[in-house]
Amino acid sequence: MKTNDFATIAQQYRVIFFDAYGVIKNAHGLIDGVADTFQFLREHQIEFFVLTNDASRGPAELANAYHKRGLTAIDAGKIISSGMLAREYLLYKVKQGTLAFLGTQASAHYIEAIGLKTISIKDVDLSDSEEISALVLLDDEGFDWNNDINKAINLLRRRNIPVIVANTDERYPVSQDHVAIAIGAVADMIERVVGKTFIRFGKPDSQMFHFAYEHMLQTVHVRKDQILMVGDTLTTDIIGGNKFGIDTMLVLSGNTQPEKARLLIRTTGIIPNFICNSIALR
Amino acid sequence: MKTNDFATIAQQYRVIFFDAYGVIKNAHGLIDGVADTFQFLREHQIEFFVLTNDASRGPAELANAYHKRGLTAIDAGKIISSGMLAREYLLYKVKQGTLAFLGTQASAHYIEAIGLKTISIKDVDLSDSEEISALVLLDDEGFDWNNDINKAINLLRRRNIPVIVANTDERYPVSQDHVAIAIGAVADMIERVVGKTFIRFGKPDSQMFHFAYEHMLQTVHVRKDQILMVGDTLTTDIIGGNKFGIDTMLVLSGNTQPEKARLLIRTTGIIPNFICNSIALR
Amino acid sequence: MKTNDFATIAQQYRVIFFDAYGVIKNAHGLIDGVADTFQFLREHQIEFFVLTNDASRGPAELANAYHKRGLTAIDAGKIISSGMLAREYLLYKVKQGTLAFLGTQASAHYIEAIGLKTISIKDVDLSDSEEISALVLLDDEGFDWNNDINKAINLLRRRNIPVIVANTDERYPVSQDHVAIAIGAVADMIERVVGKTFIRFGKPDSQMFHFAYEHMLQTVHVRKDQILMVGDTLTTDIIGGNKFGIDTMLVLSGNTQPEKARLLIRTTGIIPNFICNSIALR
Amino acid sequence: MKTNDFATIAQQYRVIFFDAYGVIKNAHGLIDGVADTFQFLREHQIEFFVLTNDASRGPAELANAYHKRGLTAIDAGKIISSGMLAREYLLYKVKQGTLAFLGTQASAHYIEAIGLKTISIKDVDLSDSEEISALVLLDDEGFDWNNDINKAINLLRRRNIPVIVANTDERYPVSQDHVAIAIGAVADMIERVVGKTFIRFGKPDSQMFHFAYEHMLQTVHVRKDQILMVGDTLTTDIIGGNKFGIDTMLVLSGNTQPEKARLLIRTTGIIPNFICNSIALR
After folding, report:
1. For residue C2, is pLDDT > 90?
2. Which chain D residues are within 8 Å of C170, Cβ to Cβ?
3. Superfamily of chain region C6-53+205-229+241-251+269-276
4. Residues 6+ apart with CB under 8 A from A272
5. Which of A108, B77, C37, C244 is least surrounded by Cβ atoms within 10 Å, i.e. has the fewest?
């Protein structure tokens, strides 16, 4: 399949939004050649941001993970996560009480930084739950699925509180050969069982792109037609970028297998402006 | 709300199909007065069968649970479970290999009785799974949700095998105040994550009613218009019975709250022929 | 792709269930060679039935269409249509009043034969609709979509009556290059807008297979493992046959393109026992 | 049910976003007392905008409809419609070619103002459709449903082009007793039949709120906690406002019946900050 050259395309834009998983890193670590790519962007004064469906940690911890692998170009200010949107929602709309959460303590830590009190669902006493003002689904780890998912359901039967899903992904790769269910799929199951409407943050929802755009405007002033979204997944990165009104590039280094890309574009009707093998320079 | 008298209605039929949970028993044990009801049926020579979405045990064990509570009228031959349909499917369509299952050993025991080999998903070795010929979802207990649900997903990525859901219920009551997620909801989550089409057994699917009807014809010869389906849930018992072409009665002793029954019938368009408070005689 | 030989497979069974469209006929008429196939079946004393999602006409009219094209082997007694199931439902469950319908007069004619009165939705007076006891969706033709779909919706807001969908197909081919929306897709739209639960008849629902099986037992006595279902669509013919517990054959003469068959089987997990190019003898 | 007083609540905010239908107007014309309400807002220097899922006309024509009924406070600059978002998308992402549309000529007129060429689906020649660069679903009127919906489907089988749904509503009231299917429900049907992913604009999607907010910032500078969203529908106005992070008020003058409001809030988990009978001053 004929693909575009990343560097040639990149130079037509002033800002690039990158998805993280499948674009910059994968189950083995950094994708080959990405360090050179970020060097190239710096030399050509192309600004960038990383848009990631991740609420397991705050931006500082996410950036630190890149640094440890030798990619120093991505600092906390460059990262926009679905967890940041969830946190903003809680700041504006919940304000008080205690947040029950499904996730690790690390994922709750970032939420607590805005002054809200949190409690892991496993520590909730259902018979004394009047203080709980919202339920937040942060991460698929850090709780006992056998007990705590049912506990979340029974909490929602007792208390009519908003439920915030801070990562809408259904699954994620844990190695070359294995995937794991992400908290977004657990959220779908709970939502259907309780029959309520949850509030979700993360690509493909356009709020993710608006948040990134507004965040970006604090440092860079660009129009939408000067931004390119680069992602490996049609149903999140590409449809989301398209709907937001920016150009989009599908890379074949992650979720979308090269031999199936054209067929998928044809069957879904989700059409990127460009297709590249990866963001590595040739 | 004006309701019908169970005994008066019952005498118009030769056979009654009963749902189990919310009709005959609930979280506290037998529903008040049901022993008298089954005595009444016997005196009036009204035949009955229990149709239950349950694959946690075989009919003998299910009957035994009634006997222990003092209800001796319900023996194994009177019980039609979704597990029986799943077993019949496996008998006709799988025939060989090993069945991986999510559920308790007790739930697998009933399947093994037809000569198929089973293995709990927790004991499956993914790197040596060629022998596995189907995945069966039997019960929400007996496995570690954190590990084994992901293991089921990775098995389905390796092996293109049929997946059988032996109980389609999404939740069940564990006490007056608590519910738990049933294996049907777990099945929905897994199906969506892997993107495949599972085979489901249980009400409201009409196969459950056909199976019961054919099973019944071995001992009783009746026409469909001589059968009444009695259940506490519009979306399983009543719509299923209606579609199968038999008369239906909604009882208010379980899932459907008396004050909401009329509204629910109106909003869903699922219309029973009769409404009774319970199957207890007045 | 390696495929099986129809004749070789067919001889292993005593009865074959055929889907109609894409198996026996297509937009151009009869599929090449099917006349010889039915001659072959007769010579080998293999019984057959045609299972079709069609409520546009009764079996006699459907059979007549084959006769006109020179295929005389298929008479009315060989045809099982979803319209027959809808008619049986109405006979058992509605019994009286007037049936409003969406479809042609020809489609209503078959329903009227059981003694029920019908009225096209276009002739319904919404302010005088107390007589209407059910709404039946029969065919995509015979009414004015701009007016009559809204009229059906407003009827369902006034009258809490059962809604029967006599053909669940979403679309059908009208020529080599064109498809048209079938009444099943219109039913889905109306159901979602009114928020009620409709009663659907047609493959892949197992009721279609039970009905055919029971119908067949009037003339032939066979076990399920002596029956083969042959169809061109994984999501109706094959999954339906599998769930009913009979062997299944996918043919590549209709909906399923030969080059995509293996991929579709792999991604859907719907697995036929056999794959043949068509039912034509080689 | 205890409700709040609109005027008391309104004075706590600097800007109010109003839904149109069921809040300002209904099937009979303006809702009683709204003229006084807009006078009150002006006197108290409370800014307002109207957020409406409507792509049938441009803002000038929508404003004109209020003027004709005597409400002069709402001019074109106060109206944010889902059609405006669709137009912005087309401006950024389509740029060239001809837009096929389902809707009236009036609805297309507003799109043409940005320099794009349009063609009603009824005038499209499927055998010569290479020029068509997108399909836009604008309004439920202006086309022949029997022919043109199928034509749209066949166009999408030939051309892999983006499909834009400019109004996601499923239905709308045409009189006290009648509703009609809106283009959003037709879009859902077409999307399912063709199996592609469409791009939708309109509440509850947060893009509608972002667009309104950015539009508003051109004239008024306020923080999110100074804005109140007022609507009659939990599933569009209230969940959308909540997710965007602003306070919300449910009014009982439209879709949500007063006697069901509390039950609906409880069952959906969509919780407004306030409930008022209407926006009329007491």
Report:
1. no
2. 192-193
3. HAD superfamily/HAD-like (3.40.50.1000)
4. A234, A238, A242, A248, A249, A250, A265
5. B77
